[in-house]
Amino acid sequence: MKVTLFFPLLLFCSLSTAEPPSESDNDIIPRGEQADYQGRKSANVSYQRPTCPQDIHAVLREMSSMLAEQKVELRHLQRENEAQAAKLGELKQQVQEQAGELTAVKAKTNVTENQVEALMRDREVKQVAFSASLLASGSGIMGPFNAHTNLVFRHVTTNIGNAYSPNTGFFIAPVRGAYHFEFYIGAHGSSHPSAAWLVKNGQHIFIAYEHQPSHYGSSSNGATLLLEVGDVVFLRLLVNTRIFDSEDHHSTFSGHLLFTM
Predict the structure, then answer these.
(1) What distance in Å separates the CA atoms of residue 188 and residue 216, rounded to the nearest whole number?
(2) Which one of 120, 134, 153, 256 is least enclosed by Cβ atoms within 10 Å?
(3) Selection from 16, 83, 94 nearest residue 54 by Cα
């Protein structure tokens, strides 16, 4: 903004309106010079007429014009500031909207990832099946024993879902659902029968029993069971019975998930 200094102008006006030095009224003026004295006095009167008011009015007019221009410029700057403030508000709103959209996209992405993981886990859980025979290799007879003995089927051919353990002989349900089990017990001619229980959590379900005094024989059975997660299913050899197996895999234990519930 322009700033105009008035002090020099006022000083100039003060000096211009001051009276020039005058001759003392006590001075004695010769008679011949009185006419010249009257002329100089008239000139002094004319000299004392002020001329500053005209200059002050010009300056005031110039200042008024400058002030008007500055007011116009100020209004223009105010309008620009208001426009910029409005644009800034719009930008802030856009940023907030974009931040909200980004948050929503991230949430949807997390949900989608969780759904994919759940589907993959569900797909893996729904794929449950196993088959195993008694002996890992060779042939032989187990039993008779003087107590019920859990059987461990060590030769695993299929174990989808890894729900069956060849170390313990236990099948542990990974998901709630309906499962079907089958088991075959090989019998070699003897005075001791061949028999095994299908056991669920310690409870005897079905039995396969065969007493073959001579030659080879076998027995089998099966069941569909509703299992909860963590339920255990296995085979148990009855007391004073025996079981036969060979490289031909006569004695087997199998099971698979029918459907989840």
Answers:
(1) 5
(2) 120
(3) 16
Q: What is d(CA 162, CA 154) in angstroms, rounded to the nearest whole number? A: 14
Predicted confidence band of residue 16 (pLDDT cuts 50, 70, 90): very low
Q: Report the predicted TM-score, pTM, of the whole model to 2 decimal places.
A: 0.54
Please classify residue 160 by burial: count the beta carbons closer than 10 Å to its beta carbon, then call 0-12 exposed, 13-18 middle and 19+ buried.
middle
Q: Could you give phi then psi for residue 222, rounded to 5 degrees?
A: -160, 165
Q: How far is CA 135 from CA 156, 172, 210, in A?
A: 10, 21, 19
Per the document, the length of the chain is: 261
**Sequence-ordered alpha helix ranges (H) in 19-51:** 34-47
Nearest to 4 by CA among 63, 71, 51: 63
Q: In 179-216, which positions are buried (b, 16+ CB within 10 angstroms) versus exposed (e)?
A: bebbbbbbbbebebbbbbbbbbeeeeeeebebebeeee
* pLDDT given at position 125: 65
Question: Mean pLDDT, the chain, as a whole number?
Answer: 81
pLDDT in tens, 225-248: 999 999 999 999 999 999 999 898
Q: How far apart are CA 223 and CA 172, in angstroms?
A: 16
Strand bridging mode 140-142 / 243-245 = antiparallel
